[in-house]
Protein 1
Amino acid sequence: MYFYYTIQALLGKTENKTSFSTDSFNEEEQLLLLKRSNEIFTECTYYILKIFIHYLYAQYNKALEYVEKARPFLATQEGQPTMVFMYLYYGLTLTALSTQKPENRKKYMKHLTSIIKKFSVWSQHCPANYRSDYLLLKAEYYRLKKQPFKAEILYAKAVKSAEKNEYINKEAIVNECAGRFYLANGLETNALAFFKEACYCFEKWRAKIKLRHMEEQYPFLSKELYPTRMKKNGASDTETLDSTRYDMRAILRTTRDITDEIRLNNLLKKIMHTVITNA
């Protein structure tokens, strides 16, 4: 049930971007019913999805509140994908709050380290599902540890893993995190590249309200994104957007080749292959 209303929120069909209420559904009333009937599994699922939706719109304190609400019922989620989902967005919430509240960073980093250890195990057992999550959390960890080179490599690997396993939602989140990393380090061109890719992924995911949020949060994106949605030389909106993404992919692939390869000869071969392939 709550997965459906999460989708409705992403589509802009609820009262506001973090609400699950619609004309025919009241989330507060439903939550009271769950509590009265002791439906703790569904109640916990509700809290987990609220962690996600508040993280998505940078309402990190609110996301952390829902972590605490979910915590007493987490045993009901044991063995469920929602358990992993919760820890991913709990971890990302901690990394965001570590930046906003440096006075609490030590405490947050302790919890983050514990979460990363969980993802290390999960990613070994099921790399297709969880490797991109693990790599993203590690990238964020090294960002906070002020080790940008390690973070840069891990962001690139996380994008590659999400793309390879066709998780467009994870690809969107990783690209946004990487964009914030580059922007904070004064590398606006790199940041723009990752933000544009994030926006494409959010659009493909049909997360239209998140896409609008990106444009509001980073106003410089608008002038870069809107031309791609206009018809040019008879090309359709989709063709223009896909063409823009094609160029973006060529840049990102080259970046990954650089970060993945150390030996000069192999590096040059990879770069030339990428250039020729995308010529």
Protein 2
Amino acid sequence: MNPITLTTVAEPLIRQALAEDITNEDVSTASIMPDARPAAVDLIAKADGVLCGLDVFERTFAILDPETRIQRFAADGDDVCAGQTLATVTGDVRVLLSGERVALNYLQRMSGIATYTHRVAALLEGSTTQLVDTRKTTPNMRVFEKEAVRCGGGRNHRYNLSDGVLLKDNHIAAAGGVRPRPVRARDRGGVRKVRAGRGGDRCRGGHHHARQHGPRRDGGGRRVHRRAREDRVLRQHRRAQRAGHRRPGHRLRVQRRAHPLGAYPGCVHEAPAHAGRQNR
């Protein structure tokens, strides 16, 4: 994780998690370990997968005691095997016992999401389809879960509602129509125009910021994307045999080759960041 993001965004959330787990003191540890004593523990993988969250794991112990040290034998994004030693943590045994659950919760969840994302991304190899996440994240876990998606080979879509205009069915229903709305949204949000044709809207970067998305039809089923002039068309639940059909004047160019996931290369697949399973 980016060190600035880790300090400014992730660390306050880690502190909240520690405060949730230790309201006054760790009474179990304090009852048998009243004084400081040096100790070292090994972090061992219990299952095969993609490792993610070592920075968060280390910062959790450092918050409790800055003198805690960690020696890493693997890095985020590495494929790890069951039984592999990933790191060794050295410090006050009381800190290691009190912080292990929170540290492991982050590491297990992030590694689980990264592993799941990697499996899905592997199905897309050889195509132009890109795997991106959504805002359907666990509350107060977005920075961690989106980092895990990226670590597993996916790409980050909007981080929050301030990153770009995306008009969906509920917006259309509330506004009473979609045609005039993208232009107003573009003017209000300062959204830059991105051409959708000739590969110009294929999202080559790791983030999809400052782009205007819109549905293909309005509430009455009328085609609206050309007049509304949104930069992208969000397609969902489309069959492979229909996805590649191109009508005259349709500016969004797609390939007609079917894909194993049942969609077409060049479209956007959403992999919810909360879909990963924790390693056990």
Protein 3
Amino acid sequence: MSKQTCRTFFLVVFGVVIFSVTTYTSLSFPQHAHAGISDTGVDTDNGEALATNPKTRTPKVTVTVRDEIPPDAPILVSPSNGSVVTNKRPPFVWKIGFDAHGIGKYQLYVDGSLLFDSITTPVKTDPLYTYAEDSSTGNATLQVKNDLTEGARTWKVKAFDANGNSTDSATWSFTIDTTAPVLLVKSVGDTTVSVSAQDVTTIPTSPIVLTKNQPVVSGTSEASASIKISVIMPDLSVTTYTTTVASDGTWSITLGTLPYYKTIKLQVSSNDSGGNSAL
């Protein structure tokens, strides 16, 4: 935006105009600047002339520049990127943002959709969440009051300053998993079984007779879960074997040499990446 002003000066000798000079001045302002200009010059509306009002002229310029600088991007803390949580109401934590004119509000997005708007600082209690800031850690924490659905989720935070400028945080992913993995033992040595951790009635009531003293125990469970077999001897000594479930959900463990004609107990468990377990 620009504004041009005009000035005309006269040289007068014994009441005769010898010559005149006209000057032009242009004032330029940045986009979105608002300027006001005042002058103490000749009041021609009231009959003044340069010869009758030779006062000093001092142009005054006032400029107001609109704030278009966004606040700092929020830094996400928790749930961490790629994490698995076993809480359907995880707290969302990020670093308190900064803006020269102050943070006006935050927005929380989950799975790309706006979940909560007008999260105001420094403390807010809402029917759906509580929000608080901790100056000692620099953390802002939003605690949801209703369960989120299980599965893969994404989240991000948008910060607004007092003038409406905004900045998005990074987008992080996490998984809510509160369900114990399904665990099934399908064979012990040469004996086919169907023992489910989810159904205690499937546990054999009489010992399984083995024909080999280094049996293979196999079954199925959640992919990438950790399988642990504890072999409990008659003297109560325990030997532990572990493996990881394959991507197709299968697993198998070869046990060490077992004593003949002894009753041995096997305890099998499965633990997924979220810490849920089946036994």
Protein 4
Amino acid sequence: MADWRALPSATSPRLYVGPGDSVARALQLYAPYSRVARTVTSVLRSLPDFVARRLLPRATDAAVLASVESIAARTPLLLDTPRAAVSIAPGTPGPDRKATAQASVDGRVIAYAKFATTGAARDLVRREHAVLQSLAASPPPCAVPRVLAFDDTAAETVLVQQAAPPGTRTLPAVADADMLRLAAAIAATEARRCLAARFAARRVPTGFGHGDFAPWNLRRLPDGTLYAFDWEYGGPEQPVTDDLMHALFMPAVLVQRRDPRQAVGTVLDALATDVPATL
């Protein structure tokens, strides 16, 4: 039986560390913002791999093992890289659930593959593929993943994306100035584009947006450029300030645990300032 390890527990896993992967490298697929979880992952990264692996419970459920083994076997084939080590995030339970595999070669993460089998999850993966193809043709004011492979069969939809380059850093749990400038830049650009007659009756200016613009879906590249991923809720008809509001509201509620009414006040205060004018 392959040695798959679960984090934080075998009963409530957020990450499965593959038998050929290191714990520290697998943790690149897991970016928590709670203080306890960040402390745990920091300690695990600091330990020798054989020690860190032993601290994690072994995955023993037969159905779980069959699923992760299947994904781990297919991911290198999709990349045409048989030596790839694979770790897997099983996704959040619910109708949109999808597994994400992280593939590494020679100690470096090279790609991520999303596997979806339910109708809602497959639609999201198809949507993300379409958005990334559109962004490749008309780049946004940030870096985005490149599509490496897309497979849409009767049973499953799979999207493989190139990983960010080495040296990429996570962002603070609360939106920083660069993140807000990027969200405002997207809004300002699209606001000018979407004043077409077909939107006039709606009285809601719309344009291209990310749809889940928050620190956990952003990284900073070594040259300082922001790198945005997980575009499955993106599309061409988002309200033009949706990403800006999402960047302010979601971290305030989910990370800072602020009262939603206070968080709304933060958003309204920000929209009343000259954030877009600072670009």
